[in-house]
Amino acid sequence: MSDDEDIQLPSKKAKVVHFGSLEEVERQRLAKQEGQGSLGTDAVQAGILAGNINIGEGETFDLEEHQSERQKEVLEEFERRKRARQIHVSTDDSEVKAQLRQLGEPICLFGEGPADRRERLRQILAQIGEDKLKKDSAEDKKEEKKEYNDTTWYHEGPQSLKEARMFIAGYSIPRAKKRLEKACEVREIPAAQKNARMQELHRQLRALTNYGSQIGDSRPISFCQFSPNSKLLATASWSGLCKLWSVPDCKLVRTLRGHNQNVGCVVFHPQATLTLEDSACCMASCSADGAVKLWSLESDEPVANIEGHEARVARVAYHPSGRFLGTTCYDKSWRLWDLEAQEEVLHQEGHSKEVYDISFQCDGSLCATCGLDAFGRVWDLRTGRCVMFLEGHLKELFAIEFSPDGYHVATGSADNTAKVWDVRQRKCVYTIPGHTNLVSGLKFQGSEGQYLVTASFDCTAKVWAHPGWSPLKTLAGHEGKLMSVDISPDSKFIATSSYDRTYKLWAAE
């Protein structure tokens, strides 16, 4: 027998196969379970009774709704960050603090720097909205404006100002009456006769030519003015000298020494060379150092000084009565001085920048000023009110002049135009765009204002007819910028002073 034959293999258990249906057996098993109860069910019921398992009736957890709320929060966070990136926050730390204070937030946290403070403001504005800050600012400004409009501010003036206003009122009313009576008489003149006179005047103006030229100083001549009798011409120079010249032969009469800096203006008293004595104060001048000096026709030295200006004085002008002197200053104000009382009676503010030129109405009741704020103002000297605001120029104003008719005002500006204003209508009635550079000076014809002369930095002066404002003549001959222009009271000569250190006389052939 072999070894293989000795090994006995394990017997294989035969699989029990049930034939037939198990329905009866399953029915018996289920009946038995119903009788005894399920082990798992019994355990759950025991846990509920013991309080270890809490099962609410009808309570469900909506997974989709929970996911949508979370998604909404994420989207809102993204929108907030987007708004924060678009908000413009000032880089000025003081302004950032002011905005935080306005929002009721602490202006500074421990260890917070300007950049962190700026970012915190950005995040706050992103949450509450930037419009909230703008709305609060608008409401604050509205309240401030309302409070400002409801508050009337008065400044008590001295007794000398009241006396000056009373004097000006008594002086101006009779003169205004005479002016109106004269206007009525002119109105009665036949139209044909007035047209003939106007045509003859225009013919003479078109025939204007250079009558004489004189080198007036070693520096530019900033101003020139005829004396009331038309026999003298006063010039002011950047050298600090003022000079008197005879007309029409242009010979030097006297040199006035007293200023240490550029002289901006020199003017005659309204009655100088007429009824005023030569030893009295016949002229006034001003300079860049704020000095204002009074001169006689007999001395080379000033007879009086007007002190009180702390900035440059650009122009001076006599009131038609001769009692008052107006000065314009670079401290944004103009002043009225009583020469008889030898004191300042009015220190008037109103311009936002330097005041440059001043002009008095022929009656003496109104005063016009202009400045580097591109605006002009007409003041009633009897009440102190600003009766007209001249708004329309685009750049600084360097010249202003009242017409002899009493209600027209002309202004010259750095926008290369001259404007004519009507005080009665309180508006600009004509704009003269006649120059290629700034208008430095202008002057109405002295007796009736029948024409206007403008001087400009384009080295020319131009004559304009009134009414109509049509160009009549261009006075060309200077080699430098024109700084001033004047018309003699007898209307025979026109004088221009220039940056080329000369002045010229113009007359009809």
| Unreliable sequence segments | none
Gross geometry: elongated
Number of strands: 28
Rg calc: 47 Å
Enumerate the strands of the largest sheet in spatial order, edge to edge or round the barrel. 1-28-27-26
Structural class: alpha+beta
Could you give the distance between the termini? 171 Å
Rounded mean pLDDT is 85
Strand content: 25-35%
Assembly state of the chains shown: single chain
The DSSP helix count reads 9
Instruction: Tell me about the largest β-sheet.
Output: 4 strands, antiparallel
Helix proportion range: 25-40%
Tell me about this structure.
The chain is α+β, with helices and mostly antiparallel strands. It has helices spanning 3-6, 23-36, 39-50, 63-86, 93-102, 114-128, 130-149, 159-187, 191-206, and strands spanning 208-215, 221-226, 232-237, 241-246, 252-257, 263-268, 283-287, 292-295, 304-306, 313-318, 324-329, 333-338, 343-349, 355-360, 366-371, 375-380, 386-391, 397-402, 408-413, 418-422, 427-432, 439-444, 451-456, 460-465, 471-476, 482-487, 494-498, 502-508. The strands form 7 sheets. A 4-stranded antiparallel beta sheet has the order 1-28-27-26. The longest helix is centred in the middle third of the chain and has 29 residues, at 159-187. The termini are far apart. The mean pLDDT is 85.
